[in-house]
Structure formats: C-alpha cells, structure tokens
Amino acid sequence: MGVHQNRQSKSRVRKRRAMWKLTTPNLVECPQCHKKNLQHTICASCGFYKGKEMISKGE
Ligand SMILES: [Zn+2]
Q: How far is the CA of 42 from the centre of ligand 1 (A)?
C-alpha cells in the first residue's frame, strides 16, 4: 500500500477536527428585540429576519 506524500499525522488531523469547538459561533444582534442570534437565521424570540416577520406568534 502506498503512502501519499502529504499525509498528515494522526495528531495533526485530530487537532484540526477539534478546532471547531474553539471558535465561537457568529452571533448578531436582532434589530427588533436586540437579542443575540446566530447569523443568517430567524430571530428565536421575535421571529424577524431581514426586516420581515417570518414566524407569527398566532395573534
Ligand atoms: Zn428578535
């Protein structure tokens, strides 16, 4: 079996795969209720996204 030239060591691969937990998720403040939400998602508390109400609270 051949071993390719740019083979990464087990520890190097494991270090890379562990990195995602260290980076903080991209949080943005909602323009409506000013709560922190994940970027590019509908606001969890008021249901607004891109200036429109996407989820109505069943008035
Ligand atoms: Zn909101």
A: 8
Task: Give the mean pLDDT per block of 10 residues along the chain (59 residues).
Answer: 92 92 85 88 84 68
How far is ligand 1, taken at its centre, from the CA of residue 13, in Å? Answer: 39
Residue 26 lies in a domain: yes
Any domain includes 4: no
Domain membership flag for residue 39: yes
Per-residue pLDDT, 13 = 95
Does the reported pTM lie above 0.85? no
Residue 34: domain span: 10-53
Q: What DSSP letter does each residue of 8-44 carry, written as one string?
A: PPHHHHHHHHHGGGTSPP-EEE-TTT--EEETTS--T
For the chain, the domain total comes to 1
Distance 26 CA to ligand 1 centre (A): 16
